[in-house]
Integrase (Stutzerimonas nitrititolerans), 155 residues
Amino acid sequence: MSTTHVALGYARRWLLGLRAGINVMKIAPQPLFEVLTRFKKLEFQSPELRYELPEVRAFLEGFPAALRAKEGYVAVRAFLKTCSDNETTFNSYRTDAERLLLWSLLEAQKPLLELNHSDSESFVAFCLKPPSSWVGPVVRDRWVLPHFHGRFEKG
């Protein structure tokens, strides 16, 4: 798939999103899953998100229903649970699965569970050259809120 084809696909999806009232250009990616010890305390039997951080719930609720953001989140959460016995594996998979979910919502503007082979090629191209808004200047803690002057306890 050529770079031009990928760029045209993004432009088409962006325009379709604007017509549908989705302005994802103003939504910045954010962490969705916490450190392993906190992750293990989530409620996995229910699709409700009552144990997730309020910031995560609000972020997911900010997307149009057609993107099924909560459904995608629950799917990624279930996948991450399968590798929660090993912290190193969990951290690695969390990074990639979280990036895919965020990409599906913010860039592809498509529900995670509707992604196809063409989308996977677009995602790989995106990961090879992400926009600057997706690249942080340094590795930092996952949850340090602007109004919070301390630090959350690490796992």
